[in-house]
Amino acid sequence: MALSQWSMVPVLLLAVLFYLTPTEGCNEAICASVVSKCMLLKSCECEMLDKGNCSCCTDCHQCLADYYMDCCDCVGMCAPPDPNENMYKTSSIEDLSDPIPELFNVLTQEPDALFRWTSYSYPVHEDVLFFKPGMDFAVTVDKQNKLHKVRHHHQTNLNFEKLEDMNCTVAFMSQCMSLNKCKSSCKSMGSARYRWFHDHGCCQCVGTTCVDYGKKKPLCLKCPLPPGEEENNYDYQPPRTDYVEENEIDDSE
Fold first, then answer.
1. Which residue range is the domain that position 11 belongs to?
2. What domain of life (predicted)?
3. Which residue intervals of 24-113 are DSSP H helices?
């Protein structure tokens, strides 16, 4: 009897490999071992056709244990990651008190010799095209990470004729950084506000002449880090769940 059980192991291992191969989002390097174990124990043979009735979900969840979040898509318990979903569409934004326009202009009008940031300027009216009257609200995070909804005072009573001759200048920090460091860095440059992208921690400092919160895509020079560099070379921290998230629905720059 024991021999017949062991004779099934190669068959089950082949089944596991077949199960893992077609799943594009499944991380074989992390999941192959634990998925093999759960398949041998028959803990994850779940039929997910009826999502309201999953008799083996508990057993599979317990079997995968700490690997559940990474490997649930390998066994059909969850949908694989959508490659079209980009975290750069999610960002934290905040207005900064006491901006210094002159300082920001001096620091961004010429390329930084130390490559600490990269500056971009574009016509302000490009922001106006995506500004929606009646939607002039921003969300900020205070010291206790409490959510506040405040009105964009700089977006009320827009003088469109004046905006035609104005440029918006933003500065993207080269290195990835935490939200707090992004805020302090932009404040030290005299920025009016900032945008921090959740994907890798790209930080954008926004000048006072900008109508909105700068560009909608991260353009940091060295963020993310090139392959082979250690992640602990910078102080990026994953966004906490109580941070404000701004869901971008427009990819325009």
1. 2-75
2. Eukaryota
3. 28-40, 57-64, 68-71, 101-108
Looking at the structure, do residues 234 and 130 belong to the same domain, yes or no?
Answer: yes
141 and 238 in a common domain: yes
- Say yes or no: 52 and 145 in one domain: no
**109 and 190, same domain (yes or no):** yes
Question: CA 162, CA 64: separation in Å to the nearest integer?
Answer: 60
Total count of residues recorded for the chain: 253
Selection from 183, 191, 187, 169 nearest residue 244 by Cα: 183
Point out the domain boundary residue: 75, 97, 130: 75
Does residue 232 share a domain with residue 139?
Answer: yes
Taking a C-beta distance cutoff of 8 angstroms, is the pair 31, 70 a contact?
yes
Q: Quick one: DSSP state of residue 175?
A: B
Per-residue confidence of the chain (253 residues) as pLDDT tens digits?
Answer: 444 444 444 444 444 444 444 445 688 888 989 999 998 998 888 776 666 667 788 889 899 998 888 888 888 888 777 666 655 568 899 999 999 999 999 999 999 999 999 999 998 865 554 444 433 334 444 444 444 444 444 444 455 555 567 889 999 999 999 999 999 999 999 999 999 998 889 999 999 999 889 998 899 999 987 665 544 444 545 444 344 444 443 444 4
- Are residues 121 and 221 both part of a single domain? yes
Contact between 201 and 177 (Cβ < 8 Å): yes
Question: Does residue 124 share a domain with residue 190?
Answer: yes
Q: Which residue has the tokens 């940091």?
A: 220
